[in-house]
């Protein structure tokens, strides 16, 4: 590995780190990210709350991207940092919306840099790197932190300059606080007064797809809280989605798709938006039919059944284990017949119509299934587990849920 033989003079620009250094740094990233997250949330508990809130995935992605971009720059100095900058500006926006000074975020950046430098020193000892190279790394790292601070400041200043009024800024802060991990903060009623917003007993959350139309906010009622600057934009509608509210929402959403969460008590707003976002994911996965406005209340069983896909696979493997010794094609036919049978409770003739086979074929398959799964089919717990697992697997494959016989 090449190395820097002479330390730079004070005030002299730091030269690029050897590209080979990236190969030593990259394997350290997963452990380093975990360590930084632990230390930062210990030093700044407010970030622990955010990491347990509805935007936790985006925050973690931003941290990972900031560290990965540094390593990428070492390996490939001209590589674009557009994604990193986009996420960092959103960090700055969150700080502005929640009413914090940038000192908190900057302190978190610098703490992360100190942890990274500590890790680099350990790597330097492990690979017997020259002290000059570790010093060059430290200089490059803290220069990089200044760059992170500058980019996040752009998002922070953007929010402050764009806010049309104190009421607008306070309403965005209200929405962030409502969606943060419970309990609701004590200052919420006071903030509601400042924002001229009546605190509702119930709310309905709406998850939006991006890009969001520019006209959307103008088409919403004055009491709807909006956040369009986070990675997953969303709305809060006070109360239930009445016919009048639905008409308003459909008109405002012209040009984009959205998912409506359940109407829940104010303290469960984060659950409502989580379910709405999950429905949008299920649309992408083909388990829920796409539509301009998808409602969670129409897909509750699907959300539940597909809440943990790996667990569903384990459950199905356990319940269908007696069929494992069969040829794959025969096993698949029996499993599909079993799925329709336990889901519909229909007679062999109707099951045959659904599967496109003769009723006698269905009876033959059911006898085979009874021979292999008889004890499980007779046990209520196993039968329920079978039906749940088979329905979930069918939904994962993009198939519609069968209709129960009436």
TrEMBL record:
Domain PucR-like N-terminal span(s) in chain numbering: 17-179
Species source reads Streptomyces flavalbus
**Top-level taxon:** Bacteria
PucR C-terminal helix-turn-helix domain: residues covered: 334-392
The record, for Pfam families, names:
HTH_30 (PF13556), PucR-like_N (PF25906)
InterPro entries linked to this entry: CdaR-like_regulators (IPR051448), PucR-like_N (IPR058663), PucR_C-HTH_dom (IPR025736), PucR_C-HTH_sf (IPR042070)
Q: What is this protein called?
A: Helix-turn-helix domain-containing protein
């Amino acid at each position: 590995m090449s190395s820097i033989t002479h330390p730079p003079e004070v005030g002299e620009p730091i030269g690029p780190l050897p590209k080979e250094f990236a190969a030593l740094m990259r394997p350290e990233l997963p452990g380093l990210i975990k360590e930084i997250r632990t230390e930062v949330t210990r030093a700044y508990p407010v970030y622990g709350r955010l990491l347990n809130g509805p935007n936790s995935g985006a925050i973690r992605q931003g941290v990972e991207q900031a560290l990965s971009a540094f390593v990428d720059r070492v390996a490939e100095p001209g590589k674009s940092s557009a994604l990193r900058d986009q996420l960092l500006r959103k960090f700055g926006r969150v700080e502005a919306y929640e009413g914090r000074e940038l000192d908190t975020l900057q302190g978190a950046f610098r703490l992360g840099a100190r942890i990274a430098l500590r890790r680099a020193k350990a790597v330097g000892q492990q690979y017997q790197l020259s002290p000059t190279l570790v010093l060059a790394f430290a200089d490059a790292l803290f220069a990089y932190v200044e760059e992170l601070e500058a980019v996040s400041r752009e998002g922070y200043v953007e929010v402050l300059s764009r806010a049309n009024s104190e009421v607008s800024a306070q309403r965005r802060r209200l929405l962030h606080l409502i969606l943060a991990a419970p309990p609701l903060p004590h200052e919420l009623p006071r903030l509601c007064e400042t924002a001229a917003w009546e605190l509702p007993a119930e709310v309905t959350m709406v998850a939006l797809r991006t890009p969001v139309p520019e006209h959307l906010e103008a088409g919403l009622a004055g009491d709807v809280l909006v956040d369009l600057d986070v990675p997953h934009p969303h709305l809060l509608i006070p109360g239930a989605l009445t016919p009048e509210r639905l008409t308003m929402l459909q008109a405002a959403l012209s040009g984009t798709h959205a998912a409506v969460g359940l109407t829940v008590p104010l303290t469960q707003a984060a659950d409502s938006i989580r379910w709405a976002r999950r429905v949008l994911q299920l649309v992408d996965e083909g388990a829920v039919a796409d539509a301009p406005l998808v409602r969670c209340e129409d897909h509750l069983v699907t959300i539940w059944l597909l809440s943990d896909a790996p667990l569903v696979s384990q459950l199905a493997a356990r319940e269908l284990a007696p069929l494992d010794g069969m040829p794959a094609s025969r096993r698949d036919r029996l499993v599909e017949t079993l799925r329709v049978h336990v889901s519909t409770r229909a007679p062999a003739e109707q099951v045959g119509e659904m599967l496109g086979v003769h009723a006698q074929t269905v009876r033959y398959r059911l006898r085979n299934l009874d021979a292999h799964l008889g004890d499980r089919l007779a046990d209520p717990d196993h039968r329920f587990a079978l039906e749940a697992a088979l329905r979930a697997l069918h939904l994962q494959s993009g198939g519609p849920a069968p209709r129960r016989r009436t």
